[in-house]
């Protein structure tokens, strides 16, 4: 595991990503590139186009050039690293790949994206079959789309684009928003324990379908408690907190508290929600008293357990 893989996958389908165009997808569909979860495989499952693969696979190229697929990031942002996974592609993977990125305003068509100015963020790199390739990115630019180039052809199971979301928050001028949401630029920057699942799950879009889509800690055997810290989309005033324990029936925390950290004020903290009882498998909503803007919110759960989602609604300062 590489350090950047702890950051959200900006391209993930469940975060709004889409494979908007590809040069070819004769053997296996381009949409597989951004599916959640590990690629699957079952030997000797043949369809009308050959062996069925859980990935993107192009035909054998008989002319000059190379294949490519363009992905619209579900969360525009700064890319810190890319994972190119050739799982199960052993005799039909591309020997080389590279990744480009572009920042496109609005809602461009595939034709407009093909004419866009692209920046190489991962240079042409040798690949191995049936392997994950963890490739760090140092480019500091904010991007909305990436293009995977496969030289000259072949199959790639998954493309992961890990980084920090940088949405256009000017759309919310004068409006309230979820200051903690991943899609608005929120990020979990610290966490006491992530034994069962990632803490960034609690600020993901939508509702958790089962407990693995939330955050769950190991059972504590001491007198402490578990916690996480959310960096907000920007300095803001939080007025409504949603603490959701849906699907956590026998492993929900007994209580929760919220503490804010003001901008540029050292270690000073502000109590946003005092220790408050929680119920299992329940969405909780708490109106918070007026307070000054904060940049981070610490969520303490007592003593351990899990949360499905955390929403912190308010206004940017």
TrEMBL record:
Catalytic activity line of the entry:
allantoate + H2O = (S)-ureidoglycolate + urea
* Gene3D superfamilies, A to Z: Galactose-binding domain-like
Set out the biological process GO terms recorded for this chain's protein.
allantoin catabolic process; purine nucleobase metabolic process
- Domain Allantoicase, first and last residues per copy: 16-165, 185-316
Q: What class of enzyme is it?
A: hydrolase
What is this enzyme's EC? 3.5.3.4
For this UniProt entry, the molecular function terms from Gene Ontology, in alphabetical order, are: allantoicase activity
List the coiled-coil residues. none
Question: Which pathway is it part of?
Answer: Nitrogen metabolism; (S)-allantoin degradation; (S)-ureidoglycolate from allantoate (aminidohydrolase route): step 1/1
Question: Which SUPFAM superfamilies does its entry note?
Answer: Galactose-binding domain-like
- Which InterPro entries does its entry note? Allantoicase, Allantoicase_dom, Galactose-bd-like_sf
The record's listing under Pfam families reads:
Allantoicase
Keyword field: Hydrolase, Purine metabolism
Matching entries from HAMAP family are given as: Allantoicase (MF_00813)
What family name appears in the similarity comment? Belongs to the allantoicase family.
Q: Would you tell me the protein name for this molecule? A: Probable allantoicase
Organism in which the protein naturally occurs: Nonomuraea muscovyensis
């Amino acid at each position: 595991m590489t350090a950047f893989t702890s950051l959200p996958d900006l391209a993930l389908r469940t975060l709004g990503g889409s494979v908007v165009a590809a040069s070819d997808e004769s053997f296996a569909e381009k949409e597989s590139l951004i599916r959640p979860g590990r690629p699957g495989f079952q030997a000797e499952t043949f369809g009308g186009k050959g062996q069925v693969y859980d990935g993107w696979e192009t035909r054998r190229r008989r002319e000059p050039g190379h294949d490519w697929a363009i992905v619209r990031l579900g969360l525009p942002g700064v890319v810190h690293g890319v994972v190119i996974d050739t799982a199960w592609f052993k005799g039909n993977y591309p020997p080389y790949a590279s990744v480009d990125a572009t920042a496109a305003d609005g809602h461009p068509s595939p034709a407009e994206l093909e004419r866009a100015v692209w920046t190489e963020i991962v240079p042409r790199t040798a690949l191995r079959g049936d392997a994950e390739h963890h490739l760090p990115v140092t480019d500091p630019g904010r991007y909305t789309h990436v293009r995977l180039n496969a030289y000259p052809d072949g199959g790639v199971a998954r493309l992961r684009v890990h980084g920090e979301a940088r949405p256009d928050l000017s759309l919310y001028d004068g409006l309230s928003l979820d200051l903690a949401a991943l899609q608005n630029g929120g990020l979990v920057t610290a966490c006491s324990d992530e034994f069962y699942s990632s803490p960034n799950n609690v600020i993901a879009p939508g509702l958790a379908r089962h407990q693995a889509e939330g955050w769950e800690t190991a059972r504590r055997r001491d007198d402490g408690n578990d916690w996480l810290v959310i960096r907000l989309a920007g300095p803001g005033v939080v007025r409504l907190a949603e603490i959701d324990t849906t699907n956590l029936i026998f492993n929900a925390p007994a209580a929760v508290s919220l503490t804010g950290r003001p901008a540029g004020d050292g270690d000073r903290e502000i109590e946003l929600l005092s220790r408050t009882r929680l119920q299992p498998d329940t969405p909780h909503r708490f109106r918070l008293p007026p307070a000054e803007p904060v940049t981070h919110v610490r969520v303490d759960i007592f003593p351990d357990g899990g949360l499905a989602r955390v929403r912190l609604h308010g206004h940017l300062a």
